[in-house]
Design goal:
This protein has 479 residues and is an alpha/beta fold. The chain contains 16 helices and 19 strands. The strands form four sheets. The chain has a six-stranded mixed β-sheet, sandwiched between helices. Strands 15-16-17-12-18-19 form a six-stranded mixed β-sheet.
């Protein structure tokens, strides 16, 4: 494949610039760069999915398959579009997994290797984000493609699934399957990647042998985090005051079940103010369902004995009495955030616990939002449409949305998903700063154990069996 004198207009008004780039058959390429640099746009050229304003493409391939957060979002959005539950007044569970990945002949290894056999008769809409990622993988790996474009391929997968996919990709590479890897996490690049294309500000600025490109001073300066964090703005509201000894969260004999499927049961859990918890476990074990029960986004909060911020759920409280004390970052929130809004409005919506803004806001709110955009390095994007930002930039905006009110409980569900190395280190530095300020209590969900700060001394560990039913083990520090 060869690209010459490429100019292609992007959604944000910039032009992707590629003066000359050639991918030869004996090469395995990675595309990398910072969030919003144009990495995904460059990969879109490979499949002819980006309209050219100028330049030429010479390609001997016709079938290009993508594994990406964007492709996963398209599957989720398609299911939403065919959901007629508002019309039929019947719960819609989504297309059955066995129908989505049919025919099943010849893919038993994939189904079992990714651990989704027990999901075959479930609807797609009932899956966790990690499980839907696995369904996407099965669809892409079930057959051979001219080119397989992997945009952050491990995102959302649990540790065991990452190992399985890594081994499968190693085998494909050994068979000379053409693979292009789009990378935020450079430490996840496999050894068989031979060449790197580095994109910055929508321009291919460096290309060549992997070691040579990554050693270039101009590249190293863009991927290494070495800045001091500024002081965070003061909280916009008076901190939550609880009676002495009252926990933020108290769940007694907690359970989550969907029809005949029990995710977990018998959970007794308390979270005291200032007690930071890491929540871990494989895809589909119930982590996100548990967190959604706390935020009120899972109706099973009403069938459980749950007390939040001194309020017993089901006692006549409004959902806003609960949400005003919670900030959340998650993939499901990002995919639900379909409101037509600009970046600053999305950030300010965190002060009002809404998806988008539906009333005018004051100057103080705007000033606070601009302070956070400065911290996040997105001040120049304040008036851009949120949907025209890259996935990683959107994630940074939603992190700011969760932090802007500095809530009593901050829920971080895979907060670093889609972030480049610099942004990931910045977010982890934020978390450490928040720990030291002791203003918030945090729950941290991640499949990357090395990201969990040492101050998160409490663990909630989900350990599911073959049916998906989880036993939950609590790990707490010795007093």
């Amino acid at each position: 494949m060869k690209f010459e004198s490429i100019r292609a207009k992007l959604n944000d008004g910039r032009y992707l610039v590629v003066n000359d780039w050639q991918l030869n058959e004996d090469q395995f390429w990675a595309i990398t760069g910072t969030n919003g640099s144009g990495k995904t746009a460059l990969s879109a050229l490979l499949g002819g999915n980006l309209k050219l304003s100028h330049g030429s493409v010479t390609a001997s391939t016709h079938d290009v398959a993508y594994v990406s957060l964007e492709a996963q979002a398209e599957m989720i959005e398609h299911e939403r579009k065919i959901d007629e539950s508002d019309i039929t007044d019947m719960a819609y569970k989504g297309t059955l997994i066995r129908d989505l990945i049919a025919p099943l002949e010849g893919i038993a290894d994939l189904i079992d290797g990714l651990g989704i056999r027990h999901l075959l008769d479930q609807g797609f809409s009932s899956l966790s984000t990690g499980e839907s990622r696995k369904v996407l993988w099965v669809n892409r790996l079930r057959k051979t493609h001219d080119v397989l474009v992997l945009d952050e391929p491990y995102e959302g997968l649990d540790a065991a699934s990452r190992v399985y996919v890594r081994d499968w990709l190693d085998q494909l590479a050994a068979k000379r399957q053409r693979i292009v890897w789009v990378a935020n996490r450079l430490d996840e690049l496999p050894d068989w990647i031979t060449h790197v294309a580095f994109v910055h500000n929508a321009e291919l600025i460096a290309q060549g042998d992997k070691a040579t490109v990554l050693a270039m001073p101009e590249v190293a300066a863009l991927i290494e985090f070495d800045q001091e964090l500024p002081e965070l703005p003061a909280p916009p509201a008076t901190p939550l005051q609880l009676d002495n000894g009252e926990p933020l969260v108290r769940l007694l004999d907690g359970s989550i079940r969907y029809d005949e499927r029990i995710l977990f049961e018998g959970l007794d859990w308390q979270i005291q103010p200032g007690q930071h918890w890491a929540v871990q476990g494989p895809n589909g074990c119930g982590k996100t369902s548990l967190l959604q029960m706390l935020t009120g986004d899972n109706p099973q909060c009403y069938r459980n004995n749950l007390r939040l911020f001194g309020i017993q759920r089901g006692s006549g409280e409004s959902i806003w009495d609960i949400k005003k004390h919670i900030g959340i970052v998650s993939a499901s929130l990002q995919w639900q955030y379909r409101a037509s809004t600009n970046v600053i409005s999305a950030l300010i919506s965190g002060l009002h616990d809404s998806i988008g803004l539906y009333k005018s806001v004051g100057d103080a709110d705007k000033k606070l939002a601009l302070q956070w955009l400065d911290i996040l390095g997105l001040r120049d994007k304040a008036n851009k449409s949120l949907k025209h930002l890259s996935y990683g930039e959107q994630r940074l905006v939603l992190i700011g949305r969760a932090l802007i009110k500095q809530p009593a409980l901050l829920i971080l569900d895979e907060p670093c998903q889609g972030l480049d190395d610099i942004s990931r280190h910045m977010v982890l530095a934020f978390i450490n700063r928040l720990v030291s300020q002791q203003r918030m209590t945090m729950l941290y969900v991640t499949h990357h154990a090395d990201e969990i700060p040492t101050e998160f001394a409490h663990r909630l560990q989900f350990e599911p069996d073959a049916t998906g039913h989880s036993r939950i083990r609590m790990i707490t520090p010795v007093a």
